[in-house]
Fold this protein.
Amino acid sequence: MGAFRFFDKNTKLISLDAKDPLTVKDVRAFQHCIEQLQSGEKIHDSDFFNIVLFGSSLGGARPKLSVIDADNTLWLAKFSSIHDTYDNPAREAISLYLAKKCLLNVPSFKIIPIDKGRSVLLVKRFDRNDNERIYFLSAKTFLHAKDGESSKFSYLDIASIIESNSLQTTSCDLQEIYKRLIFNVLIGNKDDHLRNHGFLYRENGWQLSPVYDVEIDPDKASHALALDDEGSLSCSLEDILRVSEYYGLSYDIAKDIVLSIAKIVFNWKQAALELNIPGSSVKKMPDYDEYVDEVNRLVRYKKIVDQTHA
């Protein structure tokens, strides 16, 4: 993916470059168009054409479009749905902001308020570098997995991809995927299936891509990928610490990583304030109560959780 080009039967390049691209300024209008479509209303043919042309190849369950800004930088616009009971793009923005605070590899992003407590999230396309197209492969493709088979695999399988293909970035990427494992557990990103982990092709091999699709779903029972070496789709932080050696980390270093990420994630309300996102619009953020006691035990009962957390 990322660098595929398609040609017609006459070997003529089929390209969107000849079309007038959608811009960041268009997202508010297209949020309205998407709501009309989801409500069964008819929209103008040209709007429908643009949604199909610039959005249908992007995949996923939620509405999205490719747009450019004034500098011709390509962004992925992720829209709200009429079926949402919360501002999903705003929640993902908070997750990305927290991930960045945790020193994870996060693409540039920005949030655009619309109305009625809805937003559009813009995420910079990391499979582009100016006009260069960068090869992208998902972990699903690397592991020859079929749809719905993520639970048969684990984060350790992603670590094995890194060890086999990342070359000069192996140790950094191993630590990165372990930190993402901890982050996803603590923030409640259980939509961590194999399509939501990817690699970019660089000069020295395949490198772990920036994080993407950080979906928080407190109602989801378990993770899509196994978290440890026993195929567990849910487990304790102690179980995750136990497998740290597979990622080239000692138990003590891994414990420090858990505590540093927990301290940041548990203060998500402060992150929302810093992004000017009202708490009422994101409603159900992760219920991490099950981990609070365990984190406090790791620091010998020294409380690191904000006193406002109940």
